[in-house]
Amino acid sequence: MSSVILPTTHIMSSAENKVENGSTEEEQRGKKRKMSLSSCGVCGSEEAKYRCPACLTHSCSLPCVKKHKEASGCSGVRNKTAFVTLSQFDEMTLLSDYRFLEDTGRFANGATRDNLVQAPRVTVKSKKLASNARKMNITLRFLPITFTKSRENSTFFLTKEKLFLWHLKLIFPQSSSEFTQRRVSDKQTLKQILTAYIHPTESEPVTRQKLKMYVQARFDHVKVFMKVEGRKANAVRYHELDIEKSLRDNLSYKTLIEYPVLHVVLKDHWKDYPLKGPVWHDGNQQGAKQHHRHHHHPQPVLY
C-alpha cells in the first residue's frame, strides 16, 4: 500500500501569512492606541483624537484644532512637496503624490484653456480671409478655436477669382428651422440663395414641407435681417438686407463674426427686428420719421 505525501509548502506559507498579518494588525492597533493615549497638545487635559496634517500636533476636539491654528499660525494643510524618507514612504504617501500630480495637470490644462478662450484665432488662413474681406469693405473677426462657430466655419477665399465662398447659416424663426450651407459664392443674390429653400417649385421637397409657412407667403412678405455685431445684449439691432443684391454687396460695410448668419423673417414679425440707425425718444421709428417731416426740432438719439 503506497502512501501519499502531501506538499507542506502551501500550508506553511498560509500559516506564516497569518502570523505576519496578525502582527501587522496588532502594530496598527498599537499605533492607534498610542495616539489615543497621547494628551491633547492644546488643552493637555484630554486624550488626543486628531493629528494636524501639517505639523503633527495632537488635539482632542474641533475647538482645540482652531486654537492650535490661531496660536501657531499653522495652515493645517499637509506640505505635499515635503521630503519623505524611503523608510517612511508608504501607500498613503504614494496616493498623495499621485493626487498632487493630478492637481498639477488639471491646473496646467486649465491655464491653457483660459488662454484659448481669451485669445482669438490667428492663423495664416484667418489672416488671409480677414485681409481679403477688408478689401471688400467687410470687417471679418474670428473667435477662439474653443467656440463651435469657429470650428465649423468652412469659409474659403479663391485668390485667382477674388471670390469668397462663405459658410452661411440661414435661420427661419417662424418655422423654428436652421440650415447651414457651405461654400456659398458671394456673387449669388439672396433671392437665388433662398430659392433652394422657399420657392414653391424649385426648392427641395423635404425642405419645402418644413418651411411651409414661408413657401405659402408672398416673396415680398419675406425679409432678411443680419444682427449688428458688437452691441450689448439689451440693445440688439439688425441690418435689413436687400434680397435682390448679391451676398457681397449685402455684407459690405458690415462686421462679421466668423461667417454670415441670416434671419429670414415673415412680414408679421418684422417689428421684432429693430434696425440700426436713428431712434427717437418715443421708441417708434416710423412714427418719429413722419413727425420729423413736419417738425424739424426733434433730435435723433444714435444708438
Sequence-ordered SSE layout with sheet pairings:
Elements: H1 9-37, E1 50-51, E2 58-59, H2 62-72, H3 91-118, H4 124-135, E3 138-141, H5 148-152, E4 156-158, E5 163-172, E6 177-185, H6 190-198, H7 205-210, H8 212-216, E7 222-227, E8 238-241, H9 247-251, E9 254-257, E10 261-266, E11 278-279, H10 285-294, E12 301-302
Parallel strand pairs: 3-9, 5-10
Antiparallel strand pairs: 1-2, 4-5, 5-6, 7-8, 7-10, 11-12
Give an overview in words.
- Required for box C/D snoRNAs accumulation involved in snoRNA processing, snoRNA transport to the nucleolus and ribosome biogenesis.
- This is Box C/D snoRNA protein 1.
- Residues 289-303 have a biased composition (Basic residues).
- Interacts with FBL, SNU13, NOP58, NUFIP1, RUVBL1, RUVBL2 and TAF9. Interacts (via HIT-type zinc finger) with the RUVBL1/RUVBL2 complex in the presence of ADP.
- The structure is a single chain.
- The protein has 303 residues and is of the alpha+beta class.
- Among the domains are: 124-272, Roll (Ubiquitin-like (UB roll)); 277-303, no CATH class.
- Helix content is 40%, strand content 18%.
- The chain contains ten helices and twelve strands.
- The chain has helices at residues 9-37, 62-72, 91-118, 124-135, 148-152, 190-198, 205-210, 212-216, 247-251, 285-294, and strands spanning 50-51, 58-59, 138-141, 156-158, 163-172, 177-185, 222-227, 238-241, 254-257, 261-266, 278-279, 301-302.
- The strands form four sheets. Strands 4, 5, 6, 7, 8 and 10 form a six-stranded mixed beta sheet that branches. Strands 1-2 form a two-stranded antiparallel ribbon. Strands 3-9 form a two-stranded parallel ribbon.
- The termini are far apart.
- The relative contact order is 0.07.
- Mean pLDDT is 79; it is low at 1-23 and 279-303.
